[in-house]
Design a protein that fits this description.
Elements (H helix, E strand, L loop, with lengths): L7 H5 L13 H24 L38 H12 L8 H16 L4 H4 L9 H8 L17 H9 L3 H15 L9 H5 L1 H5 L8 H11 L1 H9 L8 H10 L3 H15 L3 H15 L6 H15 L4 H27 L1
Helix pairs in contact: 3-4, 7-8, 11-12, 11-13, 13-14, 13-15, 14-15, 15-16, 15-17, 16-17
Length: 348
Protein backbone atom coordinates (compact mmCIF):
# COMPACT_ATOMS: atom_id res chain seq x y z
CA UNK A 1 0.00 0.00 0.00
CA UNK A 2 1.42 3.37 -1.02
CA UNK A 3 1.45 6.62 0.87
CA UNK A 4 -1.78 7.74 -0.70
CA UNK A 5 -3.48 4.30 -0.84
CA UNK A 6 -5.43 4.82 2.40
CA UNK A 7 -8.42 6.86 3.39
CA UNK A 8 -7.59 10.31 2.03
CA UNK A 9 -9.70 12.10 4.60
CA UNK A 10 -7.65 10.51 7.43
CA UNK A 11 -4.42 12.00 6.03
CA UNK A 12 -5.50 15.30 4.59
CA UNK A 13 -8.77 15.98 6.39
CA UNK A 14 -10.46 19.16 5.35
CA UNK A 15 -7.17 20.90 4.58
CA UNK A 16 -7.06 19.64 0.98
CA UNK A 17 -10.86 19.43 0.57
CA UNK A 18 -10.81 22.46 -1.68
CA UNK A 19 -14.47 22.26 -2.85
CA UNK A 20 -15.84 21.56 0.66
CA UNK A 21 -17.71 18.35 -0.28
CA UNK A 22 -16.18 16.38 2.62
CA UNK A 23 -13.96 14.29 0.32
CA UNK A 24 -10.50 14.61 -1.22
CA UNK A 25 -10.84 14.07 -4.95
CA UNK A 26 -8.04 12.84 -7.25
CA UNK A 27 -7.16 16.35 -8.43
CA UNK A 28 -7.08 17.62 -4.83
CA UNK A 29 -4.90 14.62 -3.97
CA UNK A 30 -2.51 15.65 -6.80
CA UNK A 31 -2.12 19.08 -5.21
CA UNK A 32 -1.35 17.41 -1.88
CA UNK A 33 1.31 15.19 -3.46
CA UNK A 34 2.97 18.22 -5.09
CA UNK A 35 3.08 20.24 -1.87
CA UNK A 36 4.52 17.38 0.19
CA UNK A 37 7.09 16.59 -2.51
CA UNK A 38 8.26 20.22 -2.61
CA UNK A 39 8.51 20.33 1.18
CA UNK A 40 10.64 17.19 1.27
CA UNK A 41 12.89 18.59 -1.46
CA UNK A 42 13.35 21.89 0.41
CA UNK A 43 14.24 19.98 3.56
CA UNK A 44 16.88 17.97 1.69
CA UNK A 45 18.29 21.15 0.09
CA UNK A 46 18.59 22.74 3.52
CA UNK A 47 20.67 19.80 4.68
CA UNK A 48 22.96 20.17 1.68
CA UNK A 49 23.29 23.94 2.06
CA UNK A 50 24.43 23.66 5.63
CA UNK A 51 27.09 21.07 4.87
CA UNK A 52 29.74 23.80 5.16
CA UNK A 53 32.70 21.68 4.08
CA UNK A 54 32.50 19.59 0.94
CA UNK A 55 35.13 16.85 1.19
CA UNK A 56 35.01 16.34 -2.58
CA UNK A 57 36.41 19.84 -3.20
CA UNK A 58 40.16 19.89 -3.53
CA UNK A 59 42.80 22.34 -4.70
CA UNK A 60 45.75 20.98 -6.67
CA UNK A 61 48.88 21.93 -4.77
CA UNK A 62 50.93 21.81 -7.96
CA UNK A 63 53.34 19.36 -6.38
CA UNK A 64 53.23 15.71 -5.44
CA UNK A 65 52.54 15.30 -1.74
CA UNK A 66 52.74 12.06 0.16
CA UNK A 67 49.54 10.26 1.05
CA UNK A 68 47.40 12.81 2.84
CA UNK A 69 47.59 12.31 6.58
CA UNK A 70 44.53 12.30 8.73
CA UNK A 71 43.73 15.85 9.79
CA UNK A 72 44.00 16.43 13.48
CA UNK A 73 40.54 16.42 14.99
CA UNK A 74 40.23 20.12 15.72
CA UNK A 75 36.49 19.75 16.38
CA UNK A 76 37.24 18.04 19.74
CA UNK A 77 35.53 18.72 23.04
CA UNK A 78 36.96 21.49 25.13
CA UNK A 79 38.79 24.73 24.37
CA UNK A 80 41.45 24.96 21.66
CA UNK A 81 44.48 26.31 23.52
CA UNK A 82 47.23 28.35 21.89
CA UNK A 83 49.82 26.59 24.06
CA UNK A 84 49.03 23.36 22.24
CA UNK A 85 50.46 24.73 18.97
CA UNK A 86 54.05 25.77 18.06
CA UNK A 87 52.99 29.09 16.53
CA UNK A 88 50.02 31.38 16.01
CA UNK A 89 49.59 30.21 12.42
CA UNK A 90 48.70 26.67 13.42
CA UNK A 91 46.60 27.82 16.34
CA UNK A 92 44.66 30.21 14.11
CA UNK A 93 44.10 27.44 11.58
CA UNK A 94 42.75 25.07 14.24
CA UNK A 95 40.64 27.76 15.86
CA UNK A 96 39.21 28.85 12.52
CA UNK A 97 38.18 25.33 11.56
CA UNK A 98 36.59 24.73 14.95
CA UNK A 99 34.70 27.94 15.53
CA UNK A 100 34.49 30.46 12.75
CA UNK A 101 32.62 28.91 9.81
CA UNK A 102 28.86 29.32 9.57
CA UNK A 103 28.18 30.07 5.90
CA UNK A 104 27.00 28.02 2.94
CA UNK A 105 29.42 25.81 1.01
CA UNK A 106 28.93 27.99 -2.06
CA UNK A 107 30.93 30.77 -0.40
CA UNK A 108 34.23 30.35 -2.27
CA UNK A 109 36.26 32.56 0.04
CA UNK A 110 35.27 30.54 3.08
CA UNK A 111 36.05 27.29 1.32
CA UNK A 112 39.50 28.51 0.32
CA UNK A 113 40.22 29.65 3.86
CA UNK A 114 39.18 26.25 5.17
CA UNK A 115 41.45 24.65 2.55
CA UNK A 116 44.37 26.79 3.78
CA UNK A 117 43.66 25.78 7.38
CA UNK A 118 43.67 22.10 6.54
CA UNK A 119 46.85 22.46 4.46
CA UNK A 120 48.56 24.11 7.44
CA UNK A 121 47.47 21.49 9.96
CA UNK A 122 48.16 18.52 7.66
CA UNK A 123 51.53 19.53 6.20
CA UNK A 124 53.21 22.19 8.36
CA UNK A 125 55.61 19.57 9.74
CA UNK A 126 56.86 18.50 6.31
CA UNK A 127 56.15 21.30 3.78
CA UNK A 128 57.74 24.73 4.25
CA UNK A 129 54.97 26.49 2.35
CA UNK A 130 52.39 25.08 4.79
CA UNK A 131 54.45 26.03 7.84
CA UNK A 132 54.66 29.68 6.76
CA UNK A 133 51.10 30.13 5.48
CA UNK A 134 48.48 32.11 7.39
CA UNK A 135 44.92 30.84 7.67
CA UNK A 136 43.89 33.80 5.51
CA UNK A 137 46.15 32.68 2.67
CA UNK A 138 49.36 34.74 2.88
CA UNK A 139 52.89 33.35 2.86
CA UNK A 140 55.21 34.85 5.50
CA UNK A 141 58.47 35.09 3.55
CA UNK A 142 60.48 37.09 6.08
CA UNK A 143 59.91 34.54 8.85
CA UNK A 144 60.67 31.64 6.52
CA UNK A 145 63.94 33.25 5.42
CA UNK A 146 64.95 34.08 8.99
CA UNK A 147 64.36 30.50 10.09
CA UNK A 148 66.22 28.88 7.19
CA UNK A 149 69.12 31.21 6.33
CA UNK A 150 71.90 33.06 8.06
CA UNK A 151 71.39 36.61 6.81
CA UNK A 152 73.50 39.77 7.24
CA UNK A 153 70.61 41.99 8.34
CA UNK A 154 67.50 42.06 10.49
CA UNK A 155 64.07 40.99 9.33
CA UNK A 156 60.81 41.37 11.26
CA UNK A 157 59.11 38.60 13.18
CA UNK A 158 56.08 37.36 11.27
CA UNK A 159 54.07 34.93 13.32
CA UNK A 160 50.70 35.63 11.70
CA UNK A 161 50.91 38.92 9.73
CA UNK A 162 53.24 39.80 6.85
CA UNK A 163 55.45 42.78 7.66
CA UNK A 164 57.65 42.95 4.54
CA UNK A 165 57.08 42.15 0.88
CA UNK A 166 59.50 39.79 -0.93
CA UNK A 167 61.01 42.54 -3.09
CA UNK A 168 61.77 44.57 0.06
CA UNK A 169 63.44 41.59 1.69
CA UNK A 170 65.52 40.73 -1.38
CA UNK A 171 66.53 44.36 -1.84
CA UNK A 172 67.67 44.71 1.77
CA UNK A 173 69.72 41.52 1.57
CA UNK A 174 71.15 42.48 -1.87
CA UNK A 175 72.58 45.69 -0.42
CA UNK A 176 74.81 43.49 1.72
CA UNK A 177 75.15 40.26 -0.26
CA UNK A 178 73.95 40.03 -3.88
CA UNK A 179 74.68 36.29 -4.39
CA UNK A 180 72.77 35.49 -1.19
CA UNK A 181 69.76 37.44 -2.45
CA UNK A 182 69.75 35.30 -5.60
CA UNK A 183 70.04 32.12 -3.53
CA UNK A 184 67.14 33.15 -1.31
CA UNK A 185 65.01 34.26 -4.28
CA UNK A 186 65.60 30.90 -5.96
CA UNK A 187 64.76 29.07 -2.73
CA UNK A 188 61.50 31.00 -2.33
CA UNK A 189 60.46 30.12 -5.88
CA UNK A 190 61.24 26.46 -5.23
CA UNK A 191 59.50 26.25 -1.86
CA UNK A 192 56.41 28.44 -2.34
CA UNK A 193 55.59 28.62 -6.04
CA UNK A 194 54.29 25.00 -6.30
CA UNK A 195 51.68 25.89 -3.67
CA UNK A 196 50.69 29.27 -5.09
CA UNK A 197 46.97 28.41 -5.11
CA UNK A 198 46.99 28.89 -1.33
CA UNK A 199 48.25 32.49 -1.75
CA UNK A 200 46.72 34.07 -4.83
CA UNK A 201 49.39 36.80 -4.91
CA UNK A 202 52.37 34.43 -4.70
CA UNK A 203 53.32 34.61 -8.38
CA UNK A 204 53.23 38.38 -8.48
CA UNK A 205 55.04 38.68 -5.15
CA UNK A 206 57.94 36.49 -6.27
CA UNK A 207 58.00 37.56 -9.92
CA UNK A 208 56.73 40.70 -11.57
CA UNK A 209 56.58 42.73 -8.36
CA UNK A 210 60.31 42.18 -7.83
CA UNK A 211 61.09 43.04 -11.45
CA UNK A 212 59.04 46.24 -11.31
CA UNK A 213 61.00 47.35 -8.24
CA UNK A 214 64.50 46.58 -9.55
CA UNK A 215 65.18 50.32 -9.63
CA UNK A 216 65.40 50.24 -5.82
CA UNK A 217 68.08 47.52 -5.81
CA UNK A 218 71.82 48.29 -5.63
CA UNK A 219 73.59 49.57 -8.74
CA UNK A 220 74.70 46.74 -11.00
CA UNK A 221 72.10 44.30 -9.62
CA UNK A 222 70.29 43.91 -12.95
CA UNK A 223 73.54 43.02 -14.71
CA UNK A 224 74.30 40.35 -12.15
CA UNK A 225 70.71 39.13 -12.30
CA UNK A 226 70.72 38.43 -16.05
CA UNK A 227 73.98 36.51 -15.67
CA UNK A 228 72.48 34.51 -12.81
CA UNK A 229 69.41 33.76 -14.93
CA UNK A 230 71.61 32.68 -17.83
CA UNK A 231 73.67 30.36 -15.62
CA UNK A 232 70.79 28.93 -13.57
CA UNK A 233 68.24 27.43 -15.90
CA UNK A 234 65.93 26.23 -13.13
CA UNK A 235 65.73 29.69 -11.56
CA UNK A 236 65.11 31.31 -14.93
CA UNK A 237 62.33 28.92 -15.89
CA UNK A 238 60.63 29.23 -12.50
CA UNK A 239 60.80 33.01 -12.65
CA UNK A 240 59.33 33.08 -16.15
CA UNK A 241 56.31 31.05 -15.01
CA UNK A 242 55.40 33.86 -12.60
CA UNK A 243 54.90 36.38 -15.42
CA UNK A 244 51.57 36.79 -17.12
CA UNK A 245 50.42 39.34 -19.67
CA UNK A 246 50.04 42.01 -16.97
CA UNK A 247 53.70 41.85 -15.90
CA UNK A 248 55.73 44.97 -16.65
CA UNK A 249 59.40 45.88 -16.46
CA UNK A 250 60.79 42.99 -18.50
CA UNK A 251 62.21 45.35 -21.13
CA UNK A 252 64.96 46.24 -18.67
CA UNK A 253 66.06 42.62 -18.34
CA UNK A 254 65.91 42.06 -22.10
CA UNK A 255 67.99 45.14 -22.91
CA UNK A 256 70.51 44.25 -20.22
CA UNK A 257 70.82 40.70 -21.53
CA UNK A 258 71.52 42.09 -25.03
CA UNK A 259 74.13 44.50 -23.67
CA UNK A 260 75.84 41.65 -21.83
CA UNK A 261 75.76 39.57 -25.04
CA UNK A 262 73.48 36.99 -23.47
CA UNK A 263 71.58 36.80 -26.73
CA UNK A 264 69.83 33.49 -26.16
CA UNK A 265 68.39 34.75 -22.86
CA UNK A 266 67.28 38.00 -24.49
CA UNK A 267 65.56 36.11 -27.32
CA UNK A 268 63.77 33.76 -24.93
CA UNK A 269 62.52 36.59 -22.69
CA UNK A 270 61.38 38.73 -25.61
CA UNK A 271 59.52 35.94 -27.41
CA UNK A 272 57.96 34.67 -24.19
CA UNK A 273 56.66 38.14 -23.40
CA UNK A 274 55.14 38.52 -26.88
CA UNK A 275 53.50 35.13 -26.59
CA UNK A 276 51.92 35.96 -23.23
CA UNK A 277 50.53 39.35 -24.23
CA UNK A 278 48.92 37.85 -27.34
CA UNK A 279 47.09 40.46 -29.40
CA UNK A 280 47.24 43.22 -26.79
CA UNK A 281 48.85 45.87 -28.96
CA UNK A 282 49.42 48.21 -26.02
CA UNK A 283 51.66 45.62 -24.34
CA UNK A 284 53.48 44.83 -27.60
CA UNK A 285 54.20 48.49 -28.27
CA UNK A 286 55.27 49.14 -24.69
CA UNK A 287 57.69 46.21 -24.79
CA UNK A 288 59.20 47.26 -28.12
CA UNK A 289 59.59 50.91 -27.13
CA UNK A 290 60.92 49.92 -23.72
CA UNK A 291 63.70 47.75 -25.15
CA UNK A 292 64.61 50.40 -27.74
CA UNK A 293 64.88 53.08 -25.07
CA UNK A 294 66.96 50.82 -22.80
CA UNK A 295 69.29 50.00 -25.69
CA UNK A 296 70.00 53.73 -25.93
CA UNK A 297 72.68 53.58 -23.29
CA UNK A 298 74.90 56.08 -25.19
CA UNK A 299 77.91 53.87 -24.62
CA UNK A 300 77.68 51.56 -27.63
CA UNK A 301 75.50 50.81 -30.64
CA UNK A 302 75.89 47.03 -30.75
CA UNK A 303 72.86 46.45 -28.51
CA UNK A 304 70.61 48.50 -30.76
CA UNK A 305 72.00 46.83 -33.86
CA UNK A 306 71.23 43.40 -32.39
CA UNK A 307 67.67 44.44 -31.59
CA UNK A 308 67.22 45.86 -35.10
CA UNK A 309 68.41 42.68 -36.84
CA UNK A 310 67.06 39.96 -34.52
CA UNK A 311 64.08 41.15 -32.49
CA UNK A 312 62.39 43.97 -34.37
CA UNK A 313 61.63 41.66 -37.34
CA UNK A 314 59.53 39.51 -34.98
CA UNK A 315 57.43 42.53 -34.10
CA UNK A 316 57.12 43.54 -37.75
CA UNK A 317 55.44 40.20 -38.47
CA UNK A 318 52.60 40.88 -36.02
CA UNK A 319 49.46 41.58 -38.12
CA UNK A 320 47.97 44.28 -35.93
CA UNK A 321 47.38 47.71 -37.37
CA UNK A 322 48.12 49.45 -34.06
CA UNK A 323 51.54 47.77 -34.08
CA UNK A 324 52.26 48.21 -37.79
CA UNK A 325 51.55 51.95 -37.54
CA UNK A 326 54.53 52.39 -35.18
CA UNK A 327 57.16 50.42 -37.08
CA UNK A 328 58.31 53.26 -39.33
CA UNK A 329 58.84 55.50 -36.32
CA UNK A 330 60.72 52.78 -34.45
CA UNK A 331 63.02 52.13 -37.40
CA UNK A 332 63.71 55.85 -37.74
CA UNK A 333 64.51 56.14 -34.04
CA UNK A 334 66.86 53.14 -34.20
CA UNK A 335 68.74 54.43 -37.26
CA UNK A 336 69.17 57.88 -35.76
CA UNK A 337 70.68 56.42 -32.58
CA UNK A 338 73.06 54.12 -34.47
CA UNK A 339 74.19 57.00 -36.74
CA UNK A 340 74.69 59.23 -33.72
CA UNK A 341 76.86 56.64 -31.98
CA UNK A 342 78.94 56.02 -35.14
CA UNK A 343 79.51 59.77 -35.48
CA UNK A 344 80.42 59.97 -31.81
CA UNK A 345 83.06 57.25 -32.22
CA UNK A 346 84.54 59.00 -35.25
CA UNK A 347 84.76 62.32 -33.40
CA UNK A 348 86.45 60.60 -30.45
Amino acid sequence: MGLFDIDNTDIFGAFFDLDGDGKVSWDEEFVARKIISDCLKDEEDDKLDYDIYDESVSFDAGAELEDEPETEDVFRDGEIKEDDYPNRRRYNAANTLANEFSVYVSDEDERKEKCCCRFILDYAETVIAADYLTHEGRFLYAQAIKDNFSIPCSLPDEDEIREMEPFQILCKIAKRDVPLSFEIWSWCLEQFLPYSEYDEFCRNDLGSWVIINLHSFPEGYVTKLVHYMNENDSFCKSLMTTWDESANGLHELIAEAIKEKLFNLADVLFKDRLRKVGRKWQKINALTEGVINRCKNYKESESMEYFKVNLLPIVKEIPLGMVQDEIEEWEKDIEEYISEMIEYKIVR
